[in-house]
Amino acid sequence: MPLNSKIYLFFFIFLSSLLIAPDASAKRDAAVEENIILLQRLDSLIAHRDKLIERKEERIKKLKADYLRAPNFNRRLESARKLYKEYSVYNSDSALYYAHKATELAGRSSDSNPDLLASCKLDEIFIYTTQGFGEEALRRLESINTAELSNEMKIEYFQVGQYIYSTQALFNTNGKLSDPYIGKSNAFRDSLVRLDPHGADNAAWAPIALQVEKDSSIYTPPVRAVERLKQIVDSASEPNRDNAINAYWLSRHYKLIGDDVNMIRYLTKAAIYDTEIENREIAALTELAQWLYHHNDLDRAYTYLIYSSDQANAYHNRARMLNVSALLPTIRDAYREALKKSDDKLRFFLWILVALSIVLIGLVIFIVFKNRSLHRTRLALSKSNSKLKETVADRDNAISALEESNEALEKSNSALETTNIALEKSNSALSNANSELSKDAKVKEGLVIMSYRLASDHINALDEYRKKLLRKYKMKQMVELGAELNDQELIKDPYKNFYAALDHTMLTLYPDFISEYNQTVPEDQRFDPAPFLKSRNLNTRLRIFALRRLGVEKSADIAGILNISIRTVYNNR
User: Which helix or strand (DSSP H or E) is residue 373 part of?
Assistant: First the structure.
């Protein structure tokens, strides 16, 4: 790996290790991980609460228009109750106004029944309780004659009664289960359970709440009630206050048995229902924030608690405001401390980034100069390559000249052979002449000397030609070429290399070449491909077939290429 690439890789790994280093203090609890999808949904609802408020206000606007346009007394009463239901956990002042209107209209109605009037009064009592007027709420509750009410309305009556006392318990500072308000709240819950032992869907939580807040050190879960409540909550899909209450008390059950995963699941579901209906009389989200604070999820804890505080202030719920105000300073201080640590860490990383940037700038400058030097080297190398190409061209030209000289030399050799034959004939003729002219000895000797001189002159001429080629070679400074001219194996070695190249080329291009050859000859003339493939060498017969395979058909061409006689070609063909 080049040096520059190693440097880049080193700094990238170093920077990444700093930026993604795990923070042990930010490690999330397993219960959070198991319920992360629900928590993310709750985060999204809180982040987009303006849209929820918009939809809520749009519904209220339509209901107010229906209330004002009500054509008769009963329709106005119905509209007033619908407006109370929308306002009941959204705006306590407006809810109280329409609860008064509904109670007034129900009291004046000629066909009014005790259940309707009691229901309207219970609506008023609920709002008085949320606003912190517990004594007034109890006084109004005692004014209702339960003997005149149906069982269904008695369930609502006991629910409101237990709510009044459980809310009053929030103002008590001793925090003990022996608190008299808790005892009275449980008395109403006990009446609710006895009145409806099978538990209506909107009161299925009562047996669990009764056991949860009992004055006992040991929690005894009502198994059947838990199973039924779980079935109701798991099958619920509509966001409303009843489903939120059911999910809340189911989470309290799982909290007491030590099941944090299910506790967070149902507590988050309760908070989701409350948020979706814009319920500002909430307890689930505050408890969820408190649990998250103790389990190192400060961001969510702070966000949920601020949201709960805003909702409680907007609703004027004194009990919830008191509860939130007791937790908010602790969580706010912890959140600020976490932000400070995060800022310090970011500042540390910033300095590291600055230092790395300086180093990287230095590296960039170094690389720029290095690249310029490399460019100059490449230019010099390019010039050298050009000169080398020119030298190679000169060498190729010299080789071509040498090949031409070799051809001329071969022709001279051929002429020399002809001359030698002629000399032999002359010698034979001279011998014959000598035998016939025995007497003319001096003439015979002269002819012999002349023939040998002619042969000697031709050989000397060839030698002078060779020397001339050597001088030409030396003038070109071709040392390697001179060595080849002086080598007795001048032609043999090139042909040997040529054969090796031909064999390797044929066996590479045509791996099945020998098998193809075997298909064209009788069985006794076939060759085993294995030895040839292993040695990568062919014999003369296979080379002839190879040239024919390449398209060379003339025997003379094949003989010239392989430096063999035409007869050999004929015999092998």
Answer: helix 318-436
The dihedral through the CA atoms of 475, 480, 482, 485 has a sign that is: negative
How many CB atoms neighbour CB 440 within 10 A? 12
Rg (CA), the chain: 56
CA distance 398 to 472: 10
Calculate the CA dihedral of residues 165, 166, 167, 172 and round it to 10 degrees.
Answer: 90
Contact 548, 558 (CB under 8 A): yes
Confidence of residue 485 (pLDDT cuts 50, 70, 90): low
DSSP 337-371: HHHHHHHHHHHHHHHHHHHHHHHHHHHHHHHHHHH
Cα distance between residue 549 and residue 90, in whole Å: 97
Structure tokens at 554: 């003339």
Q: Is the pLDDT of residue 295 over 80?
A: yes
Residue 448 has pLDDT above 90, yes or no: no
Report the C-alpha gap between 264 and 438 in whole angstroms. Answer: 141
| Rounded Cα–Cα distance for residues 276 and 51 (Å) | 10
Cβ count within 10 A of residue 361: 10
Distance between CA atoms of residues 452 and 60, nearest Å: 138
How far is residue 465 from each of residues 404, 415, 470, 542, measured CA to CA in Å?
A: 13, 14, 9, 39
Contacts of 103 (CB under 8 A, 6+ apart): 117, 120, 121, 123, 124
C-alpha 39/C-alpha 572 separation (Å) is 91
Specify the 3-state DSSP secondary structure of 566.
helix
Q: What's the whole-number average pLDDT of the chain?
A: 79
Class of residue 356 by CB neighbours under 10 A (exposed 0-12, middle 13-18, buried 19+): middle
In tens, the pLDDT along 24-37 reads: 333 457 889 999 99
Residues 571 and 573: their CA atoms lie apart, in Å, by 6
436 — pLDDT class (breaks 50, 70, 90):
low
Which amino acid type is present at position 114? P
What pTM does this model have?
0.55
Q: Which residues contact 253 (CB under 8 A, 6 or more apart)?
A: 208, 212, 221, 226, 229
Helix 260-276, helix 36-47: angle, nearest 10? 20
Backbone angles phi, psi at 171, to 5 degrees: -85, -10
Place of tokens 């006392």: 165
User: In the numeric block, which tokens belong to residue 422?
Assistant: 């002629």
Mean pLDDT within 229-247: 90
Determine if residue 563 is left, alpha or beta; phi over 0 gives left, psi from -120 to 50 gives alpha, anything else beta: left
pLDDT for residue 265: 95
CA dihedral 147, 152, 158, 161 (to 10 degrees): -90
Q: At what angle do helices 318-436 and 479-486 cross, to 10 degrees?
A: 40
Is residue 102 within 8 A of residue 77, CB to CB? The reply is: yes
